[in-house]
Amino acid sequence: MVQIRKARRSATKLRLLLTGPSGSGKTYGGLLVAKGLGSKRTIVIDTEQGSSDLYDRLHDFDVIDVAPPFTPEAYIEAIDAAEAAGADCIIIDSISHEWNGKGGCLELVDEIARAKFKGNTWSAWSELTPRHRAFIDRMLRSSAHIIATGRAKTETAQVDDHGRKKVVKLGMKLESRDGAEYEFTTVLDLVHDGHFAVASKDRTGIFSADPKPITVETGKAFADWLAGGTASPVVLPAARATAAASAQGTPPLVETIRSTIAQATTVQKLGAITDRLDALVSEGKIDGNVWSALTDEVNARHDEIEPASFSDK
Q1: Cis amide prior to 309 (ω within 30 degrees)
Q2: Which of these, 192, 194, 189, 190, lies nearest to 298 by C-alpha position?
Q3: DSSP H helical ranges for the chain
């Protein structure tokens, strides 16, 4: 019998995709969002050789290690196991291996083509596409929040600029089957060393066009939206963190870092400071809000230094 019900946003779960090049902070950002969601049990499906273990102090979570071959069925089995273990938030880090990793779809289609279709990959896709689709559908049907990460690389093209050939960046391309990103509620592309992200797709209305850092506050904004709250843009937490520090007294460590940022004279030095901030938050020595505030200061100092470096050339 066909049933009709009232639409309820609170009946849905988050489907978030974080894309970016290797080292851009996808795992880190996913864990911060999970923490902000208020997840009671987060399980990371780790295909990155234990990279999530580096952030064990950032958020309380468990890990399912998935090793090659990265078949669609291996991912489905891991999601089933995570749900059976009571996970209310599952981080899949990353979905790119299911596509182009060892034993992933691109390898499988060649194997199937050689074994059954005399090398005809077009025919082989008729068998493999339903298997890939089953993995995508399993994510969408999950009873838990799904935060997936995916590797991306910069797409470029050669264009004609008044008679001169010029290479231009076209944006980031996810290493997965074309169209995979359209299955998610929100897609955030990490575009900056400070873990800044831009929404290439956002059904929540939370994100504006400006880059924003992924923080615990990002997860809280998602949780509020899922609970039926009114969408409002994510606000940089620098002012909140500064106010909290003023009320409680700024720790000497934060003052030292702040002074080091102000005295930095090269982009390379700022990059080293950013790496140190990531290490401090993963070790639990600073919290996510303080990390965000200090990262804002690094980026502001970066903007001050970079124009000067160009004028010297």
Answers
A1: no
A2: 194
A3: 26-37, 72-84, 96-100, 105-116, 121-140, 216-226, 238-248, 252-263, 267-282, 288-311
CATH assignment of the domain containing 138: 3.40.50.300
Name the pTM for this structure: 0.70
Number of domains in the chain: 2
Q: Which of 193, 226, 259 is the last residue of a domain?
A: 226
In this structure, are 195 and 284 located in the same domain? no
CA 81 to chain centre: 22
Q: Which two tokens stand for residue 209?
A: 């066009």
Region 278-290: mean pLDDT is 71
Specify the pLDDT at position 182: 84
Q: Are 277 and 291 in contact (CB under 8 A)?
A: yes
- Answer yes or no: is pLDDT of 163 > 60: yes
Side chain identity, residue 6: K
- Please, which pLDDT band fits residue 166 given cuts at 50, 70 and 90? low
**Exposure string over 190-208, b if 16+ CB within 10 A, otherwise e:** bbbbbbbbbbbebebebbe
Q: Please tell me whether residue 46 adopts helix, strand or coil conformation.
A: strand
Task: Return mean pLDDT, the chain.
Answer: 82
Cβ burial of 172 (10 Å; 0-12, 13-18, 19+) is buried
